[in-house]
Specification:
The structure holds two protein chains of two kinds.
Chain A: E1 2-6, E2 9-12, H1 27-36, H2 43-59, H3 65-70, H4 76-82, H5 87-94
Antiparallel strand pairs in A: 1-2
Chain B: E1 5-7, E2 24-29, H1 34-49, E3 53-58, H2 103-117, H3 123-132, E4 136-140, H4 141-146, E5 158-162, H5 164-170, E6 175-178
Helix pairs in contact in B: 1-3
The chains are: A mainly alpha, B alpha/beta.
Amino acid sequence: MPVTTMNGRDVHVDDEGFLTEYEEWDEDLAKVLAANIGIDLTEAHWKVVRFLREDYATQGETATTRRVQMAGGVSVKDQFALFPKKPGKKMAYVAGLPKPHGCV
Amino acid sequence: MTSDTVLAQPIVPSFDDEAETTRKLAIICSKGNLDMAYPGLVLANAALGEGVETHLFFTFWGFDMITKSRMNDLKFTPAGNTAMHMPFHDMRVPQALAPLPGMQAMATKMMRQQIADLGVPDVPEFLDQIVAAGGHLWACRMSADMMHLDLADLYEGVEAIINASDFVEKTQGAQLLFI
């Protein structure tokens, strides 16, 4: 598993760059991850990212866009506006989680 | 861990934002059974989530998926479907029993429950999600004429009733699926 240096410390990532260790993520790192893919985090982004972190902790898998709408209260439309084109994967990346596995 | 490879530059996932801007997917939905409504919806939703411009064209029986009076009530029948198993023990429904009264209602109810258990929405709500994600819905002109329906009878996310040539034109260069 590759190790990379971000925000002055080592983090474990998979071959695509998604974090593999839940505990290695913090909000400062999220800012770096977001900047890596051209996103400047606003309060609306944070609402999604914090939901994803909490949901993963209880569900053991990354929420899909549908779950972010139904359980996280952020509409699919807003998710596309905040994390353009590929919201499911981009949200997961910034939240330091694996890509969602669900189909819907 | 000694096997870890330490990288000087962080790996950033390639979301290929630019490459995907030219990719298009067109899905023709021609079936109105509950089970056959889902493949097109699931694929459309997935494609939109990957940044692919997606168009759905509803024609013939597929019109039921977008007709307000019918879209909430699509059915599933085991009749003629030899691959239909009960959700336990690989048990099959004998084809001679499949057309019996009550079988379709029972099978439909079971399938709806299984779909809901997966957190997958019913058809109208799935269409809401596809439209919210930027998907385009088109209704077939010939089907509308045959069934004496106009735009007011259709799900509000349908952009227009268009003919086959319009659809071919709109989906120039698209990958195409007929379901």
